[in-house]
Amino acid sequence: MEQLKSRNEVDVNYTWNLTDLFESDEAFEQAAENIRPEIESYSRKYENSLTDASVAVEAIEGFKGLMESLVPIGAYANLRLSSDQGDASAQRLSGIASNIGTYFGSETSFLTSELLQKDESFLKDIRTRAPEFENFVDELLKQKPYQLDAKVEKALASYSTVFEGPYSLYLKTKLLDIDFGTFTANGQEIPLSYLAFEGELESHEDTEVRRNAFRAFSDKLADYQHTTAATYDLQLKQEKTTADLRGFDSVIDYLLHRQDVDQTLYNRQIDMIMSDLAPHMRRYAKLLKRVHGLDEMKYEDLKISLDPSSEPEISVEESRKYINDALGIMGEDYLNMVNRAYDERWIDFVKNKGKSTGAFCASPYGSHPFILISWTSLMTEVFVLAHELGHAGHFYNANREQNVFDARSSMYFIEAPSTMNEMLMANHLLENSDDPKFKRWVISSIISRTYYHNCVTHLLEAAYQREVYKKVDNNESVSAPELNRLKRQVIEEFWGEDVTITEGAELTWMRQPHYYMGLYPYTYSAGLTIATAMSKRVLNEGQPAVDDWLKVLKSGGTKSPVELAQMAGVDVTTDQPLRDTIDYIGELVDQLEALTEEIEG
Ligand SMILES: [Zn+2]
What we know:
Layout: H1 25-46, H2 53-83, H3 88-117, H4 120-129, H5 134-143, H6 150-158, H7 160-163, H8 165-177, E1 182-185, E2 188-191, H9 194-199, H10 207-223, H11 225-246, H12 251-259, H13 263-292, H14 316-327, H15 332-343, E3 347-348, E4 360-362, E5 370-372, H16 380-401, H17 411-431, H18 436-473, H19 480-495, H20 521-541, H21 543-555, H22 561-567, H23 576-600
Parallel strand pairs: 3-5
Antiparallel strand pairs: 1-2, 4-5
The structure holds zinc ion.
Zinc ion binds next to helix 16 and helix 17.
């Protein structure tokens, strides 16, 4: 197993090209410096001056301009840092961006406060004069019942860097402080890190390597559990205080309000998956155990592939053809974006020390999407890449069609375009193979990656998170032992007697950054529910379904998640789409069992 390189040793051709945002760090600093006086003169000009609707429109226009200038500043700093958390100059730039963001927030908080003090006819007048700000005004009105006094809003905005503190601390502990060292398996010393564990070792086909890696990984996590729990507790306290101050009944209501979603949709995902998906996934776990001849099925065995030997290796260059073929159905404009992503270095493929784990796509308004991934040369990466290109395709479309206020859709919908592309990839691979072993590999990838990841891993986070927030709503603090207990309870409930929940599994809550992003975890399964229904439509109806989907992508945040799903022909106000999704997963497990019979013949 290779030692991780430093960022300055990697092949530049496989890194993203941030000069599309700023030519250099100096240019970035210059831009950050230039914008400060602009913000200052903006607030001097408009604060306490919104006398009539035409001035208000001008003020919103100016605000929009400032936001458009700030987006690349924030994006550049974030991307620099996520490619190497340990890079001192990236840390400095990130500090600059965050300071300017805070300054912007507090200097312009008057705009919302003052507009919300106006009467309805004033706001209507803004909408008539400037129809492009219709959604902006509607969003304001939604906030109105929870808006605080102008001075309080300003003070809160000035503290925003502090409010981001827990997340930044979490990342520092996780990516800089924890040193996993090495572990031994089969008499060999093997280097361990977050990247190595999640990218390779936790799904390693050698049982001793996999289980020993899990042991060493968990032991090291345990050393940091109290710091991490205290960091998380700060995040929770801040959310609870905000919810209380603004007059929400609970933290969950407060966080769902931002998503334009009510508790029915939220609770349904968690409850129904916990009860109805679990039996199918336990059947899948039993199949893994049988095929691999394991003595018992342990928690750390769940990520193994059904048949690792059928997983082809794939280079970055080879992935392009798969991606093109699978996503071709989305049309020329979409594919053009995909190929630009390869040709113009929108994607950071390399592996290096200090790089953020997992994969993500950032789509700064006014620029193009950027994708972070750590390429392992395994076929699964085409699913990861298809997923991230799904986010890219979403914002590539939405950013072109909508203004900076309206481009982002609700978090509830965010994972639909990405998981949709995973389904398109799977359909493509299945259609083009008659080899039962490869077919089984593809179906098991859909289960073990797409559905496992989105409907099990993230859903168990969601179920755990809901328990945590119940405590928070009771004004209780959380500590590491309590978080461990809650996490273990959820895992045990889902897997029942079919999987042994090894010591260390309860620390899984330490691994996800999602808990610093509100009610994010449950949205993966919500998005995938829409994507499952949508990909079936594309398979059955072809072009008309694709056209509907592109319209949805272009709508950005101008519609609520329920409306967006409706446009895609999916009614998420009922439990039918989720029921269908769970049945579909059941069918996939049936197919895996049948293909296994056929292969073992
Ligand atoms: Zn995603």
